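Reply to thread "Modeling small-molecule complexes from scratch"

Following up on the discussion above, here's a worked example others can learn from. I took a protein sequence and the SMILES for NAI and predicted the complex. Inputs first:
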Amino acid sequence: MQETNNSRVNQRIATISAHLNPPSFSHMEGSSGLGRADCRAKGGSTGFKVAILGAAGGIGQPLSLLMKMNPLVSVLHLYDVVNTPGVTADISHMDTGAVVRGFLGQQQLEEALTGMDLVIIPAGVPRKPGMTRDDLFNINAGIVKTLCEGIAKCCPNAIVNLISNPVNSTVPIAAEVFKKAGTFDPNRLLGVTMLDAVRANTFVAEVMGLDPREVDVPVIGGHAGVTILPLLSQVKPPCSFTQKEIDYLTNRIQNGGTEVVEAGAGSATLSMAYAAVQFADACLRGLRGDADIVRCAFVASHVTELPFFASKVRLGRCGVEEIYPLGPLNEYERVGLEKAKKELETSIGKGVAFVKK
Ligand SMILES: NC(=O)C1=CN([C@@H]2O[C@H](COP(=O)(O)OP(=O)(O)OC[C@H]3O[C@@H](n4cnc5c(N)ncnc54)[C@H](O)[C@@H]3O)[C@@H](O)[C@H]2O)C=CC1
Ligand SMILES: O=C([O-])CC(=O)C(=O)O
């Protein structure tokens, strides 16, 4: 009798699970036979819902780990075209607050995106030695376009943090996709250039014998070669550099990505995950309503004649709430700005044309 009752209960649980569990995989479903719908943990009632697209990659995995540790995140969706079951199973065992769900392949993209407050995109191919970021355009442009079409459909109000290279072109691609869909909000689309600032803070601290945590270097322009323009005249705390130091620092900051690529283990993943989490956390704190959250990012902008430009922005409940002017530049920086704008114009135009064609 007892056995009959148990098997009826088990059958009922299986039926409920089949109806209530979405096709994504959850890591509360294990050998016990209990599905997510049968467990009492609800998760997601307070905090933000964040999706990572490209979550199984070199950046995606440490980024997923670090976002699972962020107390502002209540739900974390991990999407990729490969390997998300393993990454999700692993990360879901961490005893932090965020509920983790994995999504695999294009057919689960919409489910991964529905209801998200913040979408972080490190999906796409990275550079190999000898390549420029622009060499990634042909593959990554299509990937970013498809993912942004999903965002326009499923979470048009989400803040988007775009990491996939070439950022100087992928951000314009995303903007064109959103414009086509009628969902473009320039305040919610941010190209992630945070790693340039992270590197600049580190390298300046090294040269000046400072603690990198106390250094703040604005890095403007874009995210490739000469478009990466550190404003060493505006470093905090104020520093006085020799011309030799300025040349060394500018060159090292502009080529930080290449330095990692040439070291041979792929392009930056760990420092990028660190930078992406710093940036995502700033966006979430802005969404929460914290005051004075200022970071550099590549955004739709009027600070120059170009339609997109990286500069200091204030983050708030609606994403970018204010874009700051560049401030006084010295002659060295003015020359650098002209070079940066020339290259940026081409990269932005290439991204726009890709969607318009
Ligand atoms: N903005 C920045 O400062 C930086 C940007 N990057 C860029 O980030 C991107 C990712 O770099 P890594 O993580 O090292 O590459 P990776 O190859 O290790 O990982 C990329 C992931 O994207 C996934 N992916 C490919 N197509 C996809 C699609 N259609 N939908 C969802 N996922 C897809 C792959 O399966 C893979 O797991 C590259 O474009 C790289 O250049 C890298 C470092 C810094
Ligand atoms: O250099 C690369 O290809 C990756 C990247 O954007 C960076 O590390 O800044």
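What I'd highlight from this example: The first strand starts at residue 25 and ends at 26. The radius of gyration is 22 Å. Questions welcome below.
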